Amino acid sequence: LQNWPAFRRLSAVVVCRSICFFGVASFLSLYVTRHLDGSRAQGTAALTLFLAAGALGTVLGGRLADRRGRVGAIRAGYALVLPGLAALLAAPGPATACAAAVLLGLGLYLPFSVQVTLAQEYVPGHTGTAAGVTLGLAVSVGGLASPALGQLADHAGLSAALAVLFALPVAALLLTLRLPEPAQPAATASRRRVRAS
User: Fold this and answer.
1) Which of 24, 46, 92, 136 is least crowded, fewest Cβ atoms below 10 Å from its Cβ?
2) Residues contacting residue 132 through CB under 8 Å, at least 6 positions apart
3) Torsion angle (degrees, nearest 10) of CA 114, 144, 25, 101
4) From CA 180, how far away is CA 35, in angstroms rounded?
5) What does residue 184 show for φ and ψ, rounded to 5 degrees?
6) What distance in Å separates the CA atoms of residue 190 and residue 192, rounded to the nearest whole number?
């Protein structure tokens, strides 16, 4: 059975993640160097930590999905993004910003691969379309939104541009409240219970 309404809601979640990811990736290093008076090396370190944490987040997202379900893993990721953004905006210096970058990397990458597999489960008869749409949106929409975010940063400042990103994980979390968890085969559910115990 094809669940197109859930697929469309998940696609909207992917759009929120894409714009937020590109915004953070674009502004993080600049924020550390210009707003927090950090060195260029510290700005680069923050971006490196963000991407390295993202690699870890992708792995953890898969494991969390196996234990707690795909929708639960997606929610956990976006829930981490909110304190990450708050910590970045409130950071008194580069060290705190680097810690915030780790949270943001984990949070934005936890849902990444999980969203693709969830989309395929919502429309099992169109798995290629599901993967293409979710991966395509993950890359294209954020890139298209980046110029608008850049203009906002030029006119209102980097802090304002980053603050606008707050709305995106909030919207993503609200959308996930209407995402059903796909039914799992009995054997898979049994293995999940064993792991949790």
Assistant:
1) 92
2) none
3) -50
4) 41
5) -100, 145
6) 5
Single pTM value for the model: 0.89
> Which pair of tokens denotes residue 188?
């898979």
Instruction: For residue 79, give both structure tokens.
Output: 């829930």
Indicate the residue type of 102.
Answer: V
CATH assignment of 4-196?
1.20.1250.20
Token pair in block for residue 131: 């993967």
Contact 114, 137 (CB under 8 A): no
Q: CA neighbours within 13 Å on the CB side: how many for 175?
A: 22
